[in-house]
Amino acid sequence: MTGTSIRALQAGFLALLLSAQVACDQAGKPVADPILAGRRIDLLRHPWRTQAALGDTATTSWALSNARAVGLQEFDQGQIRRALALDPDQGYWTIPLPKAAQGSVESLNVRVRSAGEGLWQIGLTAPGQPTAITSLAAVAQPGEWLNLAADLGRDVVWTHPIESIEVFPPTGEAGEVALASTRVTTNASARARTVEVDARTRRVLEVRAGVSAVWRVELPSGARLSFGTGVPRQSAFMALDVDDGHGTPTRAWQRYVVAGPSGPWRTASVDLSAWSGQTVDLRFAVEAQPPRTAPFESRIEPSDQVAWFGAPRIDGVEPPAPNVVVLVVDTLRRDALGRYRRDRATSPHLDEFFRRCTVFERAFATAPWTHPSTGSLLTGLLPADHGLGTATLGLSRFRPGIRLIAERFKDAGYRTGAVSNNLIVSPDEGFARGFDCFDTRTFDVPQVYGARRVTTYAREWLNEGDAPFFLYVHYFDPHDRYQAPPPHTHRFVDTDPAVESTILAGRVNPTRKRMFDDGVRTDFTPDQRDMDHLRGLYDGEVAYTDLWIARLIDSLPLENTVVVVTSDHGEEFLDHGYLKHGQGLYNELIHVPLAMYLPDRSKPRTVVSPVSLIDVAPTVLGAVGLDHGDLPGRNLLQPIDDERPVLAVSYGSEGSGGFAGHGPKQAVILGGFKLIRTLDPVPGTTGLELFALSDSLEVQDLSDLQPDRVARLVAIADSALVTTTTPATTATRLSPAAQEKLKALGYAN
């Protein structure tokens, strides 16, 4: 078995111990070991290795026979080492290992130099072996330092403990040698035992001078090491080094401990938080003399010194539960963001934020309007399961027993709040369940220019309490009437007064021939200039909202906050013959932006697998460790199964104003294709449309070319989707005042 295999076996054994440990409380009852939560590690309960170090990187040294000191020498790269000279008549140097430190040599790094050219050799001697085992050999150039180095532990497993290291210069040559970073892995130089100290029985790690006990451990957040110190006799110099594998180990603690009347036992505490989350080697060492003493000059036999490290333990600070913020921009098409277009910088702040996020390029809403889609976002369920949007607005309600994710966060001890600028995402519609505070002040004034107020109220709420918190924020501004405040009003349009007056003469309506319904221009049909102007006004609202979202994000403690940015649905600008939203399942209506900011979890990445807004709930719950096993969606932080269909539905509720006359529709997205199925098609049509996902504008219907694929997706729709116009639960119609507000928003006649 190689040294690498041994280390892998040790790591696996450590993992097994970590998964199986239990501790006992004062009554002796088993309790869960806090290490499982990453908060405590009792080092004496885990395997360690012991080492002896030779050379000027360690403070312990051994006398070298047949050698004399020649002082400090400068090596390449400006390094200063202590060198020893050899008289050619002596033949070789011997570096004897004291009995307590005898073991396998883990690594060698020896510098040698001679006047002439010749072969240098390094050998190891073992008990009962008549000659040294040659392990390194190299030819030196005259007058130049030669580095002989090897990681022997990876290639050689010695069957006998090593008694000494021998250095052989070229025959007949005088030379100089210096040791650097040479370590010996020992077997019996540190041991756990129980001792009596101050009339108390203590569990200690006993370490002999010249060696160190080494633990490899992943440090928890806010790690602090605590242990006792003592010596059974005389005195000892004790030290702790932290080696993170990035250069010279750091001396984190040291103490000269003296036995005597003052008491042999003292406690120590070392802050290791600088290495939180890293895997490091902790080296507990006893050294024969303080570090300032020159190597190789000590006459003290290291094995005569012994010290105790009492029950070393690492305690971590349990990291605070992550905050969660879900930001919804009403009516935001995915392709309205600047990152997806070259002609307009509509969202510079969100574009920059998305570069720090996991971005899901093919995210789909479950419905083309707010009520059912937001219900899915906040419950993790499809509309038929949660109940919203299955009937005329004002009649459909959440089905009995449905839980919003706010309720789950509240049950877990979170502070919960919501700010909504959309009247139908409100307490009246059942959305306030689980929220400590649901801010509806944005409803008290016209809902244009709402982004500033939404951000202001959300920031107020953030400042009112402590973490952890769950905050839901619903912006409304990209919704018609497309009236952004200056300077965004005409940022992307030509201010032609004639076009402006025509566009703003009345409320935009869904169909081409009823663009306005104020009784003035019901026969108006827009031309391309009208549509460019209308889209420009919409883009101005996107830019205005982008600015205020950025100010909210800047207020968040992003170092410990999960942030989701998405939309409930998109908006159509005659892409498929209509305006506004609610009447179909084309991409301009259900293909929405979705980005998740995950602090310290993973690098920003892009995911192209199709996902659904029902996946947001299990993802944010899973991100903070809350249970979501009862939800049909998937945690998007885990590998995504491309074989799961993504589903959407439009119920075509009659009597809901702009949505009237459009029958129920279903969409199934799977295997790189999207099926749109109209359940009450126009006579003479199949009501089936098939588009490749690569055809983002959905201009080429492939249903006639791939009938087998269409049949498979129809079968999935039949088994997975329910369409109904029956109210989910009995409910009272909206009050006259609420109906008037819905008319103002374009949701009712």
Brief summary:
With 749 residues, the chain is of the alpha+beta class. The protein is built from twelve helices and 40 strands.
Can you walk through the features of this model?
With 749 residues, the protein is α+β, with helices and mostly antiparallel strands. It is built from twelve helices and 40 strands. The strands form eight sheets. Strands 4, 5, 6, 8, 11, 13, 14, 17, 19, 20 and 22 form an eleven-stranded antiparallel sheet that branches.
Number of helices: 12
Shape: elongated
Tell me the number of strands.
40
How would you classify the helix and strand content by structural class? alpha+beta
Beta-sheet strand percentage? 25-35%
Mean pLDDT: 75
Low-confidence stretches: 1-38, 55-66, 69-73, 154-158, 290-302, 506-522, 653-661, 724-732
Task: Tell me the span between the first and last alpha carbons.
Answer: 81 Å
Radius of gyration: 37 Å
Taking the sheet with the most strands, its summary is: 11 strands, antiparallel
Helix content: 10-25%
